[in-house]
Write a structure and sequence with these properties.
The protein is an alpha/beta fold. Helices cover 45% and strands 19% of the residues. It folds into five domains: 1-67 and 182-243, 3-Layer(aba) Sandwich (Rossmann fold); 81-179, no CATH class; 248-298; 324-530, P-loop containing nucleotide triphosphate hydrolases (Rossmann fold, 3-Layer(aba) Sandwich); 571-631. The chain has a six-stranded mixed sheet, with helices on both faces.
């Protein structure tokens, strides 16, 4: 069932088009990730779908009777509304049904005659069936599940909503939307203000829902686990791709390569035809030349995949520090509770260490304590020889709202900088034109984030300490920051909830949770494997205790011979099948590279599904072949 569709949709501001001629459709159950660089119009499109804005031209169809809800970024609460009041209001329609059911029951009890009784009973039955169909009898359980999943405790339920922090209020609005369970859910950066554990819960929850969704997010890990399709919004157009973010990126690259080859062949053909036309247009072969000219005019020109180029960024050359950049011994800090205790840590020059943990665990406090911005309760910290610290704060408080961008970035203690150099630096971080003369308060979140990173680069620090630097950055800016950190010659300590980012940049992790900080050698995936292993070991131990059995050990006489994963097949037979599948994959890639394929969504989807199925089959065949080579002899 199509929930919404558009044809020729366009929106412009001050005469400049944000996007134009958009064509798309959203079906029930589809979970669509909307990606694109900052300024591409993602939020504008979401507002159009939510009917909070109107298109300047084109048609937007929204199926009559469906409920569409957009995640509110700026909540408004009544003065006496508690947290649970706000959450339950998301289920207002079901609560109204429950009230109506109680009224119908009262009508049955007060019926004066058989006709009134029959009418009231019929109404009661209809209401009861509707409530049962929507699982309305478990309202309290659903509210508690969602609030608990979004990290609210039961003691928060009766607290006035207005007394929560901005991040907590955003989570409450997300809870309200999830409980509404509309037919079409519009989620604009839903994982903002969520820690990793809460984001993981949200991924699982959304993946179980059967409603349609359009999700704007720069969290690539989140997109990989939730969405079933990607819309790329760029240069005023939407290009759809099946699958999650990783599949989208792979298909985009494959499509770009195929189209590039076809484009080059077409350009050679066009050049040959144009040369023939020029040579014979006025001669004896003018008829043939005119015929070729007409055919050439009808040739559908191949459009290359548009390149989305992120900012260059880069932190430049820095002076070399000592080999040990920072060292802590028995570091302890507490406020209402202990955040970390007896923390021993050494950071070596050239390393990038990621800091992660739940909201409120003390991650920001830890890095501030390590660089001397907060005082430890006990223990000591030593900075290494010639270490220069550059600090990026999560709230971007280093950028005064009333100051122009160019002045906010300008190093106060370095008189050698000139305006041209500052503008070049800002341009490197994607800030050009009149933006640099705007006040910081006039800038978007993404622009402020880039300005803060440019300010960090201007310090020439050889030890960069960053607190949530990917907040507000689009995917391409995140990739530019990842590249900049990898190329940086100094040392980096970075707090982040972005798992994809941590996998790209971190050599080690500090995990802050439950009143302690511990160091993990490796990235986020390594950490996940360790958690899984610990969980499996604990489960196995619990099973042994329950069964009162000693731990089993592997028998020394057990055969070391490798068991087959796949059934026996002759190697040449597998090789023939591999060759056949490879031919079909190549043919499908060629079809996917043809513009006409992508004009027919049904054909494109079927072709892509067949390509993906064969790609999986090919990978299995390769493994089968390797096993046959090893074990058939």
């Amino acid at each position: 069932m199509i929930l919404t569709s558009a044809s020729g949709l366009g929106r412009q501001f001050a005469g400049d088009p944000v996007f134009q001629d958009l064509k798309f459709e959203v079906r029930a159950g589809e979970r669509i990730g909307l990606v694109g660089p900052n300024g591409a119009g993602k939020t504008t499109l979401m507002r159009l779908l939510a009917r909070e804005d109107q298109a300047d031209y084109g048609q937007l169809y929204i199926r009559p009777g469906i409920r569409v809800s957009l995640l509110r970024q700026q909540p408004e609460f009544g003065s006496d509304q508690t947290l649970i009041d706000v959450a339950r209001s998301g289920m207002g329609s079901l609560i109204d049904l429950q009230i109506a059911l109680e009224e119908a029951a009262q009508e049955i009890a007060e019926a004066d005659d058989d006709a009134d009784l029959e009418r009231a009973t019929k109404r009661y039955t209809e209401l009861h069936d509707r409530l049962e169909h929507q699982d309305a009898y478990s309202i309290d359980h659903r509210v508690e599940e969602v609030l608990g999943g979004l990290a609210f405790s039961t003691i928060d339920f009766t607290r006035p909503a207005r007394t929560f922090s901005g991040g907590q209020q955003s989570r409450l609005m997300l809870a309200k939307l999830l409980l509404e369970s509309p037919d079409l859910m519009l989620l604009d950066e839903p994982s903002n203000h969520l820690d990793i554990a809460t984001t993981t819960w949200l991924e699982s929850y959304l993946s179980r829902q059967s409603v349609g969704m359009v999700i704007v997010s720069h969290d690539r890990y989140f997109l990989d686990r939730v969405v079933t399709k990607i819309w790329e919004l760029h240069k005023g157009k939407i290009d759809p791709y099946p699958g999650n973010y990783t599949q989208y990126w792979r298909l985009r690259e494959e499509k770009a390569k195929v189209l590039q080859k076809q484009y080059e062949k077409q350009q050679e053909y066009i050049a040959d035809q144009e040369a023939y036309i020029r040579k014979y247009k006025a001669g004896q072969r003018s008829t043939q030349a005119h015929d070729r000219e007409k055919k050439l005019a009808r040739v559908e020109r191949i459009e290359l995949v548009s390149q989305i180029v992120g900012p260059v960024m880069g932190f430049g050359e820095v002076d070399r520090s000592g080999d040990i950049v920072i060292e802590s011994r028995h570091l302890t800090k507490a406020y209402d509770k202990v955040l970390f205790k007896d923390f021993n840590f050494s950071l070596l020059r050239g390393q990038c260490v990621g800091v992660m943990g739940p909201n409120g665990a003390g991650k920001s406090t830890l890095i501030k304590t390590l660089i001397g911005r907060e005082q430890a309760d006990s223990g000591e910290v030593k900075l290494g020889h010639r270490v220069i610290v550059g600090y990026h704060d999560q709230g971007l408080e280093s950028l005064a709202p009333e100051t122009t961008v160019i002045r906010a970035v300008w190093p106060e203690d370095d008189p050698d900088w000139v305006q041209g150099e500052i503008r070049d630096l800002l341009a490197r971080f994607g800030l050009t034109g009149e933006i640099v003369f705007q006040t910081v308060g006039q800038c978007s979140g993404g622009e402020k984030g880039k300005a803060a990173l440019a300010r960090l680069a201007a310090t020439s620090a050889n030890f960069l300490v960053m607190d949530e630097p990917t907040n507000h950055l689009d995917i391409w800016s995140c990739e530019a920051l990842e590249r900049s950190i990898k190329e940086f010659e100094g040392t980096v300590l970075v707090v982040s909830h972005d798992r994809y980012f941590l996998n790209q940049v971190a050599d080690r992790l500090i995990v802050v949770a439950d009143g302690r900080a511990k160091t993990i050698e490796g990235d986020y995936e390594t950490y996940q494997r360790l958690i899984q292993q610990e969980s499996e070991a604990a489960a196995a131990k619990a099973e042994r205790v329950e069964a009162n059995q000693p731990s089993s050990t592997t028998s020394p006489n057990k055969s070391d011979k490798k068991k087959r994963k796949y059934p026996y097949r002759k190697t040449p037979e597998i090789e023939r099948e591999i060759a056949s599948v490879e031919v079909e994959v190549a043919e499908l890639q060629d079809v996917l590279g043809q513009p006409i394929t992508w004009r027919d969504p049904i054909k494109a989807r079927a072709t892509q599904d067949r390509h993906d199925t064969l790609a999986v089959k090919l990978a299995t065949l390769y493994e089968h072949w390797e096993e046959a080579v090893e074990l058939n002899s």
